[in-house]
Automatic annotation (TrEMBL):
UniProt KW Ribonucleoprotein keyword: no
Enzyme Commission number(s) from the entry: 3.4.21.89
Superkingdom field: Eukaryota
Protein name per the record: Signal peptidase complex catalytic subunit SEC11
Gene Ontology MF terms: serine-type endopeptidase activity; signal peptidase activity
Annotated source species: Cinnamomum micranthum f. kanehirae
Family matches, as Pfam families: Peptidase_S24
All residue ranges annotated as the Peptidase S24/S26A/S26B/S26C domain in the record: 37-118
Length: 177
């Protein structure tokens, strides 16, 4: 009696290698983009309405970071100690200290009534942002494309279903000869 294996080893190995190559390529593109943009996170999704009407929840922002000075009016993405998610706000005030060249930056969401110092955005006791807090400056955006990320973050079951479906598709697809 001939038995047919459920999943031939050769085909499974080829599909696993293909999946690994796709994931590796995506990671290489991300790392290259990080090097070119100079930002540790060259793409972010707007998660709140604090920057409306300019940027809405779900917009994808593209960032860059260079040695150019940060100016009032620029939109920056920054991290605050104790918060996991970066924040997107506009620079309203820049103080440059001439003695050591350090800059202090005050930010505010376009849709917020008060600046981030008085609005409770900064860490307890923090009055300014320094350059090390800033991830990047916004140079472009695509509206609404980030909603997929928001949905998958807020409803993790959708993320797991999508990953499972894609994995199943890769494993069950047949190669053309």
């Amino acid at each position: 009696m001939d038995s047919i294996p459920f999943l031939p080893t050769r085909r499974f190995t080829a599909q696993a290698i293909n999946l690994g190559m796709i994931v590796s390529l995506a990671l290489m593109i991300w790392k290259l983009w990080m090097c070119i943009s100079g930002s540790e996170s060259p793409v972010v999704v707007v998660l709140t309405g604090s920057m409306e009407p300019g940027f809405k929840r779900g917009d994808i922002l593209f960032l860059h970071m260079n040695e150019a000075p940060i100016r009032a009016g620029e939109i920056v993405v920054f991290n605050i100690e104790g918060r996991k998610i970066p924040i997107v706000h506009r620079v309203v005030t820049v103080h440059e200290r001439l003695d050591n060249g350090e800059i202090n930056v005050l930010t505010k969401g376009d849709n917020n009534q008060v600046d981030d110092k008085h609005g409770g955005i900064y860490a307890n006791g923090q009055l300014w942002l320094q350059r090390q807090h800033i991830i990047g400056k916004v140079f472009g955006f695509i509206p609404y494309v980030g909603w997929a990320t928001i949905v998958m973050t807020e409803k993790p079951i959708i993320k797991y279903l999508l990953i499972s479906a894609l994995g199943l598709l890769v494993v069950t697809s047949k190669e053309e000869k």
